[in-house]
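Quick check before the chapter quiz. The format below is the same one you will see on the exam, so make sure you can read both the input and the output lines.
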Amino acid sequence: MEGYSAVCRYLYTIEEYPEVLLVYADSIRQLAIRDKSLNAFLEYYSWSGEAYFMKGDFPGGFDWKRKALVLAERTKQMGDAVAICSDIGYYYNVATRYDSARYYLKKGYI
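Here is the expected output.
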């Protein structure tokens, strides 16, 4: 999973090739299914959200990020939950939905 995550991180950093990012995220999903790993599912949801944001599909990005947030909260991975809230808040700010941005940024102060 480390290798797939590293490629996802690189594609996110250069802000290009969202379709390739989705392919690598799906590879993480396949590992999650094989290993029954909640951490891998969390990575899959989060990277899928980033790919959708990169494509300009904000509703899709928000859906994936919210799935990641729910999983992080259920598994009490508060560090991940804070990072995901920050991501969601950032993208709501970009989308000029300031009330929603404020909600998620404040929620990230857990």
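If your answer matched, good. The CA atoms of residues 46 and 62 lie 10 Å apart.
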